[in-house]
Amino acid sequence: MQSDDNLGNVWRRAFSGSFLVAAVASVVTAMASPSLALDRESTVIISNVGQMNTLDPLRADYSQTNLIDSTLYDTLIQYDYENNIVGRLAAEFSMAEDAKSIQITLRPGVKFHDGTALTAKDVAFTLDRLKRVGAGVAALAEGYDTTSVTDDTHLTINLSKPNSLFLGALSKIYILNSALVSANAGSDDGQAWLRSHDAGSGPYTIQEIQGDNVTVSLFADYWDKAEGRPEAFLFRRIDESATSRDELRAGNIDLAFRVNDRDAASLASDPSVNVLTLSIPFQTEVVFNTRSGPTADPRIRKAIRLAYDYNGG
């Protein structure tokens, strides 16, 4: 489940406040500690919950991957803070009246981290790869057929059937450097290589990976420069809320996600810590065994469905 959906937008904007806004229940930040070996004046340390299995944007459906990938990659479009679809790598975009194709004009002057210029071929490669591998965020690209490349900055995404939601889905698909991934494709379409390498054009690039801890540093040639961005982010794995609480108090980390209510409440009185609580949508799925057992009976399933308070808080 991708819980930090809008975080990529936050990284790309000027960072000068005392905390980030993200789709999480509790977000807390602490003042930096001068005793740490890192350059704490220019590095933000973030606790990242859970194992980081891969940095392949295919798996950006996992929050651990998406949190980091949102700093390394760009998307064609994004949602702004008023939930309007606006361009990122796409300078212009329009969906056909029959909702079976999307015409896109790419923003000029965008560079990948290796200095290669972004072109329409990279977009086509990214979408074709999603279709070939069929995992992770490929579920968002259901109905994708082909991409027609007109020239370096113009392309048309063709769908197999009308899908007015496809344009919004592009906000979750990170565009890859096709030449770089192709050169490291191996036998799995670059999945092994992308576990620990990036092929993006985002504001940051990988500096170091140590287990589940990842450091990214500012990309000097990023097309959308903004004053106030940190020079680096360190994503440090911390699974326990209490550990994040104590590390915030000690000044060893600057930002923690998924801090439980009790720990957030205990930090609220600390003048060196800011606690931000956000209301977020939460989705629960119930899956029935329809082959055997009591729930094989459709009447039982119906009774269970009727027992839910769908309008409850």
Structural class: alpha+beta
- Adjacency order of strands in the biggest sheet: 9-10-11-2-12-1-13
Report the radius of gyration as a whole number of Å.
Answer: 21 Å
Low-confidence stretches: 1-25, 31-37
Distance between the termini: 22 Å
Mean pLDDT over all positions: 86
The beta-strand count equals 13
What portion of residues is helical?
10-25%
Discrete helix count: 9
Strand content: 15-25%
Q: Would you list the SSEs in sequence order as H and E? A: HEEHEEEEHEEHHHEEEHEHEH
Question: What is the general shape?
Answer: globular
Q: Describe the biggest sheet?
A: 7 strands, mixed
Describe this entry's structure for a reader.
The protein is globular, with a radius of gyration of 21 Å. β7 (144-151) and β8 form a beta hairpin. With 313 residues, the protein is of the alpha+beta class. The longest helix is centred in the middle third of the chain and has 14 residues, at 120-133. It has a seven-stranded mixed β-sheet, sandwiched between helices. Helix content is 23%, strand content 22%. It has nine helices and 13 strands. The model is unreliable at 1-25 and 31-37 (pLDDT under 50).
